[in-house]
Design a protein that fits this description.
Blueprint: H1 2-24, H2 34-52, H3 58-88, H4 93-117, H5 122-136, H6 140-148, H7 163-169, H8 175-198
């Protein structure tokens, strides 16, 4: 019974951490140390574990995925737009940034949930989930923003908004540092996806008796 329901414990813990970060702690666009980084990433990691062990029942699968779409369009999209409107009216950037990160995580987890309900094994779901988490924190979107944004005074010398990079490299990241940081995370994500699959596993197979010809069957 415990082995069957272990995913639920991870799901409850992930939901509790989400409520703590999104509803209790004040919005904060800056990560000050690695412990805070782990705190803010913990809901995603716990959700990955929960999805990895989620029961695969064919009957409610379509209903559950439809509920994900309805939840996104009916709740999450509206909350996101409200943050955008508040920011356009001169509001604080931190609530918008908090919601943007939440939408990114939700998108990854929704894809992972569909993969699980589609028949993926726990191992494959966990590998894809942890690889996606590495991409999430890689700074890839920070780099694309840096190079694609129309900066009126030219591109800044440093990515001062990418505080999750700062806490690991010891200073505000230059574009070169951000590229290296991103590349390392993308390589780690690739390793998570490919290395376990590249290790040959020899399984002992029980020899099966050869079928009898049709004219010798009783």
């Amino acid at each position: 019974m415990i082995r069957r329901w272990w995913w639920l414990a991870a799901g409850v813990a992930g939901a509790a951490m989400t409520v703590l970060i999104m509803g209790v702690l004040p919005p904060d666009r800056t990560i000050d140390d690695p412990l805070e980084f782990l705190l803010r990433l913990s809901p995603v990691l716990l959700a990955i574990l929960a999805i990895g062990g989620f029961p695969q029942r064919a009957a409610p699968g379509m209903v559950l995925l439809a509920a994900v779409v309805v939840g996104y369009m009916g709740v999450l999209d509206t909350l996101y737009v409200l943050r955008v409107v508040a920011l356009a009216d001169g509001g604080d950037f931190a609530p918008f940034y908090q919601m943007a990160i939440f939408v990114n995580a939700f998108t990854i987890l929704a894809i992972l949930f569909g993969y699980r309900l589609g028949g993926a094994s726990t191992g494959r779901v966990l590998r894809l989930g942890f690889a996606a988490a590495l991409v999430l924190v890689s700074g890839l979107n920070d780099l694309s923003f840096y190079y694609l944004n129309d900066w009126p005074d030219g591109r800044p010398a440093r990515l001062d908004w990418a505080s999750h990079i700062t806490v690991f490299v010891g200073g505000t990241a230059t574009p070169t540092v951000a590229v290296v940081f991103c590349a390392v995370h993308l390589l780690l994500a690739t390793a998570v996806l490919l290395l376990p699959a590249s290790i040959p596993l020899r399984r002992r197979q029980t020899p099966q008796p050869s079928p009898l010809p049709a004219d010798h069957r009783p």
